[in-house]
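# nightly structure sweep
# worker-07 picked up a monomer target from the shared queue
# config: single-sequence mode, recycle default, output format = structure tokens
# input follows
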Amino acid sequence: TAGYDDFPVLGEYEYAISVGVSGFCMVSSGTTGLIHALVSLMQLISPRALRSVPKQLYIPCGIIKDKPVLNFRSVHLCVFPETTLDFIERSITMAGFAKYSHIIIEFWGMIKFDCADFMSWDNAYTKDEIRPLIKLAEMLGMEVIPMLNHFGHASMSRVTSGKHVALDNDPDAALLFEPDGWTWCLSNPDTIALLKSMREELAELCGSGEYFHFGCDEAYSYATCDICSKKDKLKMLTDYLNYLADEAKAMGRKPIIWGDMFLDSQKW
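# output follows
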């Protein structure tokens, strides 16, 4: 079996595995690389005899040296009212075994906020229920990217569902949104303050990381209220996006947004 000294210095996230008759050796320059090495080693385990007692398993002899082609390898996980904790756990585990580097978790009204209880369904999960899942992702070498829709999808539901988390719970919250309830009202300072409090809670829940996902897609009813409709739509939007970028920087994070609203040349 090759040992540590048999491999040259490995780069970030790169790892090597050597399996011989007498044992195995895993080498990496960092913790994430060792996690990926262990995952690969587990995937190499093969059955020899399953009806025997005990079962007989083996790992083929050989050497593997591997590293990711892309440093950013992300999967997006939506948590709906129908999504169970068990499903989330299994999804995170599968993502870890696929060696993703990041996992985006988007709660569709399914996390209880301290700052606004009307922004979650009655069966939403508590932070204490979610924290073990965040820890699981970290143990599998992934960064959890918090996500909160800051433009469209303000109802925390699909556009076809007819549901609205906030307005179903508290109709008096209507002015936080454009008249149809689908898009956040960017001219309302209460909207800006609420979103700030919500994203701070999500960032704390998901732990330290490099990114924050602001959503910003499908804002079909942008600037339709009495106040927003009288403003320069493009300037209001660019000011808002620059504000979010500054907020992300202040959190020590990089902003992520969807691009569909900004690729539609007819929208502006």
